[in-house]
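Task: complex structure prediction.
Instruction: return structure tokens for all chains below.
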Amino acid sequence: MQQVPALKIDGITLSQSLAIIHYLEETRPNPKLLPQGPKKRAQVRMISDHIVSGIQPLQNLSILQRMGEKKMEWAQQCITSGFQALEQILQHTAGRYCVGDEVSMADLCLVPQVFNAERYKVDLSPYPTITRINKALLELEAFKASHPSRQPDTPAELRA
Amino acid sequence: MLNSMDSKPILYSYFRSSCSWRVRIALALKGIAYDQVPVNLLKDGGQQFSAEFKALNPMQQVPALKIDGITLSQSLAIIHYLEETRPNPKLLPQGPKKRAQVRMISDHIVSGIQPLQNLSILQRMGEKKMEWAQQCITSGFQALEQILQHTAGRYCVGDEVSMADLCLVPQVFNAERYKVDLSPYPTITRINKALLELEAFKASHPSRQPDTPAELRA
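Output:
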């Protein structure tokens, strides 16, 4: 598919982040990234899918390259529109994190999207729930260690 | 597990929305009776933007499914919920690797192709709408054809209908609508044809819905 991420694991190569995450969940089930009950699982997936289908693809690299000068404005529109809906949903589902008080797949999708929002200078003040949850997640070691500023290929000027 | 006194699920759908069609297929395959409320994405500035619909689904998109006392949106979240609560017949295979293949193909279509050519994006493309849709679909189908040559049996993954097939057929319909040349994609074409022979795919087809305009009706 000529995209990242791709994960080579257990003799296969997988792409599509949520397909990969579901595979990890099914083969290495602890700690859980999806809650137990079908309704809560549906909420986690709904939030995740909203971000990975409804926001991110519209502002990914190949689309922005096609937008040329209008790139920043386009990214802001896509993210703002998506975050308006997401803030509504989260007010209904969130506890400490996106769905209740346990970290789930939805949280894994939220943090990178907020990072993008900041990168494209989206005003986040209309989204207090998104902001609060993002801040709480960034205190967790897994979110810090995996941050773009700490990767082997992070350029020197962006390194934490 | 399910209370037989529960009222019927309600699906908010648009006849030609490929995301809605995926859910219609799932409901048909699992034999789940439901009521359909059409939401016209073009009329009145887009009925999905009404205050009434927004109260039901803040994402202001179809499909939305009211079921078991909750309202869900996002077609794959809905399909997973149906799979977990009404498990027969299965829409995901048993083993994690095959399930990953089904999800990979599904996600490629629902995140990598469809959103780039959905209504709100095409409206922003103006004159370049057809060309844009063709580019997105062609690019996505080139990759998909490669993947399917590796995973497909009679259907997308092996010989059983799965969530991947529910995503494929509506996307091929869109490809035909935007006049994408499908001759470079023989596996996609073969699988699509086989799926369209199944009753669930026929009954849920855009040409057969309560809100299908007369001129497009089967």
